[in-house]
Amino acid sequence: MQLKGFSRIVLILLMLSVNIGCDQLSKSVVRHKLDDNVQISYFNDHFNLIKVENTGAFLSVGNSLSGPTRLILLNLLPLLAIAAGLVFILTHELNRVTLFCVILIIGGGFGNIYDRIAHGSVTDFMHIDFGLFQTGIFNVADVSITTGVLVLLVHAMFKKPVKAEPVDSIEEA
């Protein structure tokens, strides 16, 4: 069943709201319950909670930027990209997997940009450590973005190509 029109828009906005809400709720709890740089470990130190305020973007890239450059690269351009993505998904028919992935990416991106604008930094708090496999410190929005991108890539790799319909030969008059 394919949703159309108003129902589709409501469902997209609801999914975005849930995505952003989960991210913002988790960050709010962390901001109020965890002290900076205090680590709480679970599962034999493989999963750790540690609150870090990231003033940059992914893996702190851009945290040394200042002034208009910082405003443009870390706030304005990502906000424009998210707005364009939102307009795109609201105005184009996408298959369910692609739509879901783009919603994850937009929701995660919005959650982090909101933090950057409202708090001056993005609250990161999760870290995974399995020896050779170790992550940076991340948050729910980062999980959302990463999941959306990975599922979108896997979907694109394994999607069956659409067969072109044969063109009828034109008979001469």
What spatial order of strands do you see in the largest sheet? 1-2-3-4
Number of DSSP helices? 4
| Helical residue percent band | 55-70%
- Sequence of secondary-structure elements: HEEHHEEH
Average pLDDT score: 88
Percent of residues in beta strands? 5-15%
Class based on secondary structure composition and strand pairing = alpha+beta
The value of Rg in angstroms is: 20 Å
What is the CA-CA span between the terminal residues?
Answer: 44 Å
How many strands, what sense, and barrel or not for the largest sheet?
A: 4 strands, antiparallel
Regions with little confidence, pLDDT below 50 for 5+ residues: none
Principal-axes shape call: globular
Number of domains: 1
Query: Quick one: how many beta strands?
Result: 4
Gist?
The chain has 173 residues and is an alpha+beta fold.
Q: What report would you give on this structure?
A:
- The protein is built from four helices and four strands.
- It has one domain.
- By secondary structure, it is α+β, with helices and mostly antiparallel strands.
- Helices cover about 55% and strands about 15% of the residues.
- The chain is globular, with a radius of gyration of 20 Å.
- It has a four-stranded antiparallel beta sheet.
- Helix 1 packs across helix 3.
Q: Can you lay out the helices and strands and say which pair or pack?
A:
Elements: H1 5-33, E1 39-42, E2 47-54, H2 67-91, H3 96-119, E3 122-130, E4 133-134, H4 140-158
Antiparallel strand pairs: 1-2, 2-3, 3-4
Helix pairs in contact: 1-3, 2-3, 3-4
Describe this protein with a few key phrases.
173 residues; 4 strands; 4-stranded antiparallel β-sheet
